[in-house]
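Data availability (excerpt). The following record was deposited with the supplementary files.
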Amino acid sequence: MKRLSGGIDIGRYTHHMIIIDEKEQILYQRKLPHHLGEIKETMKQLKSLQKKENAQLSFALEGKNGYSNPLDRLLLAEGFTLYNVDNYKLKRFREAFTGEWRDDNRDALMLSKMLNLKEHINTKEEKVFIEITKPSIIPESLKLLSRHQQLLIDEKVRLTNRLGKKLLEVCPELLSLGKLKYQKIIAILAKYPDFSRYSKITLKSLLRIPGIGKKQAPHLLAGLHELAYMPDLTDIYKTIISSESKRISQLQKEIKEIDAKMDQIGQQDDSIKHLKSIPGVATKLASRFLGEIGDISRFPSEKNLAIYCGIACVNNSSGKINKTKVVYKANKIAKQTLITMAGCSIRVNPQCRDYYLKKRKEGKAHNHALRCLARQMIKVIYRMLTEDRDYQIKREALKVA
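Predicted structure:
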């Protein structure tokens, strides 16, 4: 069947689309606004063009995971084949032609020309074009939720650090009653941001605050009554502390709600259950990791998965020099999640702890030893997900080789 090659340069407000035939004749060219109605109308035009030419239409995109959504979703839904092209590879391809000028329209043309040469430049070993597949609902949902949750966690950490600095300025003794990461301290500050009222707090009113039990309430009450604070600018500090503590309390609630939602979604997927069988891995880490890697069948081997997560190094040899280099264009969220999983596992898993201590004895730093452990965990995770089974501890091999 005849093949048509399309190139799409993704933009925030507009996308540039060009379609060429096998002789590189432009058959379709449009500056497409990022409007759902315009995109749906374009889908009809593309289907009509494909039918008219009696050809299979495929597209190369620059900027996947940027502003390509919902254009890429609609293209996949209509049955078109999509490929993601790295912007660095596109730059090198563009430089092969005469002329140094560049604009979005030319980028779209270069993408279509690259795709037209796909059969010549794409091999099993060296893939220039990465096919974009239609995402599964559960991994995509977990990915969206986990990334949003991480943004909330980062915001909570920033606000907590900022609030701690304000307390050091006006009432440093309050931090001796408990850390700001504890819900009870944040709840006290949210309800009583004015330190001048602390001497009048009763045990009954203190017990109404969420997170404070009967055992700890008398100790907290005695500490609150004896707190010393700077009386200057009390009203200003009260406004700031009230605002930040209420926002932190709200963030804590939202993070827990997302945890419950991810747990509910994760129960529908066996891969989440398999990952949670690893000692030290709970719903949050399992959901975040699966959301980032998607379907395990995307990776032909555990080495490919390790490279995608940025855990494995790639060969960088030349002549008599044999060396490796780190993969910088890896999925940073997947890498961070995997390192966290390794850090949690050494606390509860004897095998992981023994392997970590072995690397430490070899002179490796803490972070390096964790990366080595994460590399071994990739092998285990890949086998678990491909064989559809839970984590297994071999009693006869408790000592890590």
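Summary of structural features: The chain has 16 helices and eight strands.
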